[in-house]
Design a protein that fits this description.
It is built from 2 helices and 2 strands. The protein is an alpha+beta fold and 39 residues long.
Length: 39
Amino acid sequence: MIVRNGIRMLASVMFTDMVGFTSMMQEDEERAKLLRDRY
């Protein structure tokens, strides 16, 4: 937790994994990026 000017700020991080993403990138990079951004 970060405190700035007496205000507490909370941050979170989310990690996900897409099955087959590397092969999708190799086959069609633009489509893979669109699918990634969609999720």
